[in-house]
Amino acid sequence: MEKIAIQTEYIKLDSLLKYAALVGTGGEAKTVISEGLVTVNGEVCTMRGKKLRPGDVVRFERFTLEVTQA
Fold this sequence. Notes:
By secondary structure, the protein is α+β, with helices and mostly antiparallel strands. It contains two helices and seven strands. The strands form two sheets. A five-stranded mixed sheet has the order 1-7-6-3-4, with no helix packed on it. A two-stranded antiparallel ribbon has the order 2-5. A hairpin with a 2-residue loop joins strand 3 and strand 4. The model has no long low-confidence stretch (mean pLDDT 97).
């Protein structure tokens, strides 16, 4: 599991995928999220603007990310 430290209150799901370099563009992030390929805290999430806060766990393909506070 990779930890992603944020300095703000939250990060949006599509931004997290781009920041972690799991997708190359915002358009690609939108596609994988809308197709139901991403889970947040064990549930499929299709909202690309979902606000993720420290403690949230995101899974995409073989990658697992945990949002932490910097």
